[in-house]
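User: Please predict the structure of the protein below. I'd like the answer in structure-token form so I can feed it into my own downstream comparison script.

Assistant: Understood. Taking the following sequence of 70 residues as input:
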Amino acid sequence: WTELSIQNPSGGGVALKVSVSAAPEDGKANVALIELLAREWRLPRRVLSLATGRGDRRKTIAVAGDPVPF
């Protein structure tokens, strides 16, 4: 089960709210998150990486490459 939605956190800005069914152990949920985002954004998984939040619910995802297509 997965869920992806856009949120407006109280601190301002925009955040994605994502839920994955993978267990949050041994990095399984982080891998599922990267796979979900790669599929939704139609990007190769290799261009996405977890910049911050490996053990936290709040994460920052880095996207490598040219930002113009976005």
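That's the full token string. Residues 48 and 63 are 5 Å apart (CA to CA).
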